[in-house]
Amino acid sequence: MSHKTLATTIPIDHESIETALTYGAQKDAARVRDVLAKALTLKGLDMPDVAVLASVSDPELLAEMFDTAKKVKEEIYGRRLVLFAPLYVSNLCANECLYCAFRKSNRLVRRRALTQEEIAREVEILVSQGHKRILLVAGESYPVEGFPYILKSIETIYSVKKGNGEIRRVNVNVAPLTLEEFRELKAARIGTYQLFQETYHRDTYMKVHVDGKKRDFDWRITAMDRAMEAGIDDVGVGILFGLFDWRFEVLALMQHIRHLEQTFGVGPHTISVPRLEPACGSDIATQPPYPVSDVDFRKIVAILRMAVPYTGIIMSTRETPNIRRETFALGVSQISAGSRTNPGGYLEDEQEDMSQFSLGDHRPLDEVIRDVASLGYIPSFCTACYRLGRTGQDFMDLAKPGKIKDHCDVNALTTFMEYLIDYASPETRSVGEKCIQESLKRMTPERRRTAKILIEQVKAGSRDVFV
Ligand code: SAM
Ligand code: SF4
Q1: Could you read off the pLDDT of 241-252 as tens digits, one per residue?
Q2: 32, 50, 73 - which closes a domain
Q3: Rounded distance, CA 221 to CA 223, Å?
Q4: Which residue, by CA, sits nearest to atom 13 of ligand 1?
Q5: For residue 267, what is the domain's CATH number?
């Protein structure tokens, strides 16, 4: 990557957002339908288009909008849903984010940073459940060794082997790093570096981040520039919905995305859409200043799916099973399952006085998989792209003409078969095998042939086979 001058801020243009929102708010059905037609070309949408969709409330237009998002999702992602689990290694934090249970002054939370042995134990449990991807999460204060604690934790996660399983991709959600630290993170073989701006509205940002390093809006918003400059080309962005008007946030996110595309030739790999959930010791989390209704939440997912069709959308277990199901069709491509947000939570179960926020979906992985498969989605544990170096621009080059489907569909089925043989309950295995048979029927003859060969290899005992 070239040595460009690193951005010290990314200006979010409030005026153009307000103008786009005012223009978009004119109830113009023809304009909405034009934008939906544009979305079907799979080339993405611009900020004014997004503003038009954000204002839709008419039930008929809303139904058309959801229908278009479903078509875009189906065209690009088919029926695959990638699974992962978060791993909270530490809840130590030096920041004061008013919405988070881990904030420094919150005495209601018991603090704990896992030792490497404890991390290995947690990973063994996740591997025994069938997980292949972990999202490492931590507060912004590390035990005595500092940032190398995170590097060591990644090494520990990759080192665990249990039965036929191991973690094949570690994504990371930790506070913004320096360029040099990002280079170290890249060398530790991470998949995606994930960081949420929380709110792109600077005044709101200053109100809810009252102390600590995280108060520096510019250091945070420019983190992805440093990560990409350091060679991490899969980055994941996000907004914490409920802090400010979601329409503003989504348009500002579009500006952030365009900035990354213009500077680095590629946008984010994923977008996360967390909604504020109740958190121990936080008033703001229980009573969000700008609550997002369930209908608006579905709109957000649909709009993002159409606006940046090749960027994955992640749905966490903050949401209830029902909301999660509804958003799969609208655009979600990755989900967490069986999650805990307290360090040590997989061994010791959920403990409210150590957790970051309350969960909406408490089901174990096996149950989520059974549910997803019975709805006709293919649970995927694939990690092939990252390990074959198909990341950043290379991934997008494959993804944009739709070629990635050839790989993903096959790899989803082989990794799902691995899961069914090694980890599933008899009930889930039966639902899953039917799902695989149905999926094979829908494939082109050529793709079906490849998938069948690889599935037979898995049945014969091979693991980690992919195209
Ligand atoms: N400490 C780092 C940071 O703040 O970026 C990384 C990990 S932090 C534990 C991960 C994310 O959790 C935050 O970016 C925030 O969006 C989300 N979060 C915090 N409090 C939350 C709450 N009450 N409900 C939902 N999500 C929350
Ligand atoms: Fe700390 Fe992150 Fe929670 Fe803020 S959101 S208090 S930085 S863990």
Answers
A1: 999 999 999 999
A2: 73
A3: 6
A4: 196
A5: 3.20.20.70
Residue 196 in contact with ligand 1 by CB distance below 6 A? yes
What pLDDT is recorded for position 8?
Answer: 93
Nearest CA to ligand 2 atom 2: 139
The answer, yes or no, to whether any atom of ligand 1 lies below 6 A from the CB of 274, is yes
Amino acid identity at 349: D
pTM over 0.85: yes
Instruction: For residues 121 and 229, state if they share a domain.
Output: yes
CB 256, CB 200: distance < 8 Å:
yes
DSSP 147-216: THHHHHHHHHHHH-EETTEE--EEEEE-S---HHHHHHHHHTT-S-EE---B-S-HHHHHHHB-SSGGG-
Say how many Å lie between the CA of residue 282 and the centre of ligand 1.
13
Ligand 2 atom closest to Cα of residue 214: 7
Distance CA 66, CA 78 (A): 16
Domain carrying residue 358: 79-362
Tell me the three state secondary structure of residue 385: helix
- Identify the three-state secondary structure at position 244: coil
Which of 88, 100, 173 most suits a substitution to test ligand 2, by most atoms within 8 Å of the C-beta? Answer: 100
Q: How far is the CA of 308 from the centre of ligand 1 (A)?
A: 23
Q: Which residues line ligand 2 (CB under 6 A)?
A: 93, 95, 97, 100, 102-103, 139-140, 214
Strand partners, 371: none
| Residues 289 and 140 grouped into a single domain | yes
Q: How far does residue 10's CA lie from ligand 1's centre (Å)? A: 21
* 134 φ, ψ (degrees, to nearest 5): -125, 140
Tens of pLDDT, residues 273-325: 999 999 999 999 999 999 999 999 999 999 999 999 999 999 999 999 999 99
Compute the distance from residue 366 Cα to the ligand 1 centre, in Å.
26
**Which of helix, strand or coil describes residue 280?**
coil
Same domain, 89 and 50: no
